[in-house]
Amino acid sequence: MRGDRPGTPTLVECGVIRTRAREPLACRLAEIYDGVQQIIAEHRPTVLSIEDVFYSRNVRTTVVLGHARGVIMLAAQQSGLAIHEYPPAAIKKAVVGNGAATKEQVQFMVTRLLRLKSVPSPADASDGVAAALTFLLAPRLPTIASLSSRSQVGR
Amino acid sequence: MRGDRPGTPTLVECGVIRTRAREPLACRLAEIYDGVQQIIAEHRPTVLSIEDVFYSRNVRTTVVLGHARGVIMLAAQQSGLAIHEYPPAAIKKAVVGNGAATKEQVQFMVTRLLRLKSVPSPADASDGVAAALTFLLAPRLPTIASLSSRSQVGR
Predict the structure, then answer these.
(1) Residue B151 has pLDDT above 50, yes or no
(2) I want to staple B73 with a disulfide (CB 3.0 to 4.6 A). Which of A26, B7, B103, B129 is the partner?
(3) Three-class SS state of B6
(4) 3-state secondary structure string across chain A
(5) Min CA distance, A112 vs chain B (Å)?
(6) Which of B26, B65, B77 sits opposite A73 (nearest CB)?
């Protein structure tokens, strides 16, 4: 997503990296890592916005998700991206204005804020877009980089 | 660890990769990944033996461990290592003969089986050595590679 131009943020690309559940975990992790690396090489983003760990009732699911998150964060770190993690409630709060918003409300606002013709699909891709929007919409503390560029502007 | 020569397996190197808890998770994951890659490049092993996920009472700890395991498995996969995962009880069973063995019993047997002068230290390094020993000691189903080399020997 682009948010560096004046006006509304623009969706450049969204999607999901699918792996086969039958494959060994290590193969699936390598596919996810390679997929994220490719997207970074193609679009050269400066920020990775990622949902905080989802604690499902099934601990095994949460742990496998942790493995996947690990290789995604590794790829981002190796390419020098700033990494921002947001709990699900923070994403809902930023996009809808209500931390307890429904999935449908989030999808509605994602579609509207980006002036899309339809909800990004599949649903997991829409979740990723919501996380990216959160970085652009959420109030942030000034970073060292932004402070130094401001002080240069003030000279 | 070397187990390809006749007689007892030999410990080549053991240790831990320490990261600072204060650093962002992504930095720590990159350090772990780089550390594992270095060890693989140096010793050129063919197998990664790794303890199955430890489900601690603190779910957060288990999930962070999942991130670390993810980047370790990724490094092994990228270097073409065969990956073997063992639950803690399988490691105790293989090394001590009892799946409910104590930590001290595992350390005693690790020291003895490898003819070491003292227990590998720190304790986490000793756990890694026990996992490696498990691969060498645990009865395994014949692999396609071992079957084909056997059939060549039989010609």
Answers:
(1) no
(2) A26
(3) coil
(4) CECCCCCCCECCCCCCCCCCCCCCHHHHHHHHHHHHHHHHHHHCCCEEEEECCCCCCCHHHHHHHHHHHHHHHHHHHHCCCEEEEECHHHHHHHHHCCCCCCHHHHHHHHHHHCCCCCCCCCHHHHHHHHHHHHHHHCCCCCCHHHHHHHHHHCC
(5) 32
(6) B26
Q: Please state which CATH class domain B25-138 belongs to.
A: alpha beta
Domain ranges of chain A: 25-138
pLDDT score of A53: 83
The pTM assigned to this predicted structure is 0.86
Q: Note the residue count of chain A.
A: 155
The verdict on whether omega for the bond into residue A9 sits within 30 degrees of 0, i.e. cis, is: no
Q: Which of A116, A51, A36 is nearest to A81 (CA)?
A: A36
Spatial separation of the C-alpha atoms in residues A117 and A115, rounded to whole Å:
7
Residue of chain B nearest A55, judged by CA positions: B59
- Residue A71: closest CA among B42, B98, B152, B72: B72
Which residues in chain B touch residue A26, judged by CB atoms under 8 angstroms apart? Answer: 73-74, 76-77, 83
Q: Tell me the helix, strand and coil percentages in chain B, rounded to 5.
A: 55, 10, 35
Residue A7 confidence (pLDDT): 67
* Mutation to test the B interface, candidates A55, A69, A81, most B Cβ within 10 Å: A69
